[in-house]
Amino acid sequence: MSREQEALDRWREEMGKAARGTAGWSDTLAAASDARVETLLLTSGAPARTGRRCRQCGRAAADDGTCPLDGTPMEEHDAADLAIHQTLAHGGTVLSVNGDLLGGEGVGALLRF
């Protein structure tokens, strides 16, 4: 079995148990910012998405507004770049997967905790 297939099978299992998995930009960017992402899963060819990053602390988020940690206005950035940076900065790995992962959003994660 390929690494991609193993990761997707594990992700489906974790999501089915509502345990250590995320789906979509909001939950995944929050988990990446909290250093909880073990493996970031990105669908190759997924549509580009704009995310937000706090100028002060670097926290990533999917939605516009202010940082939930320090109230600083969030700046626009590419959501995939934010997720990858946060994941790698906290010792996680990134895996590109084929297919329609997560009903079109194209992102999910396996979590450490």
What key attributes describe this structure?
113 residues; alpha+beta; 60s Ribosomal Protein L30, Chain: A; 7 strands
Walk me through what this model shows.
The chain is an alpha+beta fold and about 110 residues long. The protein has a single domain (about 5-110), classed as 2-Layer Sandwich (60s Ribosomal Protein L30, Chain: A). It is built from 3 helices and 7 strands. The protein has helices at about 5-15, 25-35, 80-90; strands spanning about 20-25, 35-45, 50-55, 60, 75-80, 95, 105-110. The strands form 2 sheets. A 4-stranded mixed beta sheet has the order 1-7-2-6, sandwiched between helices. A 3-stranded antiparallel beta sheet has the order 4-3-5. A hairpin with a 5-residue loop joins strand 3 and strand 4 (about 60). Helix 2 (about 25-35) runs parallel beside helix 3 (about 80-90). About 35% of the residues are buried. The mean pLDDT is about 90.
Helix and strand topology:
Elements: H1 3-16, E1 21-23, H2 25-33, E2 37-43, E3 50-54, E4 60-61, E5 74-78, H3 79-89, E6 93-97, E7 107-111
Parallel strand pairs: 2-6
Antiparallel strand pairs: 1-7, 2-7, 3-4, 3-5
Helix pairs in contact: 2-3
In short, what is this structure?
With 113 residues, the protein is of the alpha+beta class.
This entry's quaternary arrangement is single chain
Q: What is the strand content?
A: 25-35%
Find the count of extended strands (DSSP E, 2+ residues).
Answer: 7
In angstroms, what separates the terminal alpha carbons?
A: 25 Å
Number of domains: 1
Biggest sheet: strand arrangement:
1-7-2-6
How many strands, what sense, and barrel or not for the largest sheet? 4 strands, mixed
What average pLDDT do the residues reach? 92
Helical percentage: 25-40%
Write down the overall geometry.
globular
CATH architecture assignment: 2-Layer Sandwich
Helical region count?
3
CATH topology: 60s Ribosomal Protein L30, Chain: A
pLDDT under 50 segments (min length 5)?
A: none
